[in-house]
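in:
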């Protein structure tokens, strides 16, 4: 560890001016008055023996932001990947009326799936040579007008053994890391890949009209392309107990607190305008391992078979797995909090009926008027 620290200091002194750090050859080693600049290191208090400047000042500044050399690791683990497994076969119908049949290439049984956003589960698939047909769980058949769901998102959040000291999160786009805030600043040559690496945020600055996050020594990324969890010190006002589910609509993240400590965090997809996820403090009132979801509005019809790991908390708005989603980090739903199947399964195992769900939007852009929120959602 000491060798790594000393190596970093030599690197700082060899690269020249970085974020206000003077180079080794600059005339700052002995400023006017004869005071000697402190040797590189972190000084918890101002010392009278030397001047806190140069590399030592930079290290102290970063230490105050929570960045240590080397960086403090997060006590995290990946959940069991088998949580993402589902025992169902799914098929998405084309967005047109699809009649149900009495058999492969058989006659209609009088039922149809209206045009819309429709996913069904099937138990058999038959190629008649003149077309492919799928047998539904009900025993009815449909023509293969659509596409099978060949795979679901394998993304999962992370379990934590203790609450991180700093905000943390995931990039949900492929983005370059900059040496300073701003679109026109040099790049470091490093790139963040969507949902691959967990990053910590040590500072935020505004440049070019947008916020930029400091994620390492002279490493900055555009904040709006990162889904961030900001740890909380206290439970939301109005709730009892010390365990709750924290849903940040602005960041599209979810954190789970148990005994006031973060034990799990991930990225979500909440309601897209005008089908917002309503801000407020709620409680889980029902849990269902699978649920069939639909609405009767034929202008915006949806039907979803076997939605896994559903936890209702606000009328028909629920936390649940979304096998039809391949990306998270953006509002996309009809009001529910969509999670990957693995994340929903983890949350379902942890949550109890009566647990609190705190939904909020730090930007204040999500309306709170109850009249805007319908009883149905997905």
């Amino acid at each position: 560890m000491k060798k790594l620290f000393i190596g970093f200091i030599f690197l700082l002194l060899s690269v020249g001016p970085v974020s206000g750090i003077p180079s080794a050859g600059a005339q700052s080693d002995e400023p006017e008055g004869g005071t000697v600049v402190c040797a590189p290191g972190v000084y918890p208090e101002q010392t009278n023996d030397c001047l806190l400047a140069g590399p030592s000042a930079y290290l102290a500044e970063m230490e105050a932001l929570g960045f240590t050399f080397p960086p403090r690791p997060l006590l995290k683990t990946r959940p069991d990947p088998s949580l993402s497994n589902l025992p169902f076969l799914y098929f998405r119908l084309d967005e047109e009326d699809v009649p149900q049949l009495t058999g492969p290439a058989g006659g209609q049984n009088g039922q149809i799936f209206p045009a819309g956003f429709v996913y069904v589960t099937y138990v058999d698939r038959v190629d008649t040579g003149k077309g492919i047909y799928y047998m539904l769980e009900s025993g009815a058949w449909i023509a293969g007008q659509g596409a099978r769901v060949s795979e679901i998102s394998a993304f999962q959040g992370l379990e934590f053994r203790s609450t991180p000291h700093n905000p943390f999160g995931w990039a949900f786009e492929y983005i370059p890391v900059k040496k300073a805030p701003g679109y026109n600043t040099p790049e470091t040559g490093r790139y963040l890949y969507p949902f691959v690496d967990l990053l910590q945020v040590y500072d935020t600055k505004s440049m070019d009209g947008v916020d930029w996050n400091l994620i390492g020594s002279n490493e900055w990324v555009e904040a709006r392309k990162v889904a961030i969890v900001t740890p909380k010190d206290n439970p939301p006002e109005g709730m009892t107990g010390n365990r709750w589910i924290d849903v940040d609509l602005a960041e599209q993240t979810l954190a789970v607190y148990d005994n006031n400590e973060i034990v799990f965090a991930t990225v979500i997809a909440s309601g897209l305008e005008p089908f917002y996820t309503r801000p407020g403090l709620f409680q889980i009132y029902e849990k269902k391992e699978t649920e069939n979801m639909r609405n009767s509005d034929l202008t915006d019809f949806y039907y979803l078979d076997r939605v896994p790991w559903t936890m209702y908390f606000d009328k028909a708005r629920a936390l649940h797995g979304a096998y039809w989603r391949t990306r998270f980090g953006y509002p996309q739903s009809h009001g529910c909090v969509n999670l990957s199947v693995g994340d929903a399964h983890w949350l379902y195992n942890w949550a109890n009926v009566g647990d609190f769900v705190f939904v909020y939007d730090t930007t204040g852009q999500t309306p709170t008027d109850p009249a805007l929120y319908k009883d149905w959602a997905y």
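note: The mean pLDDT is 87.
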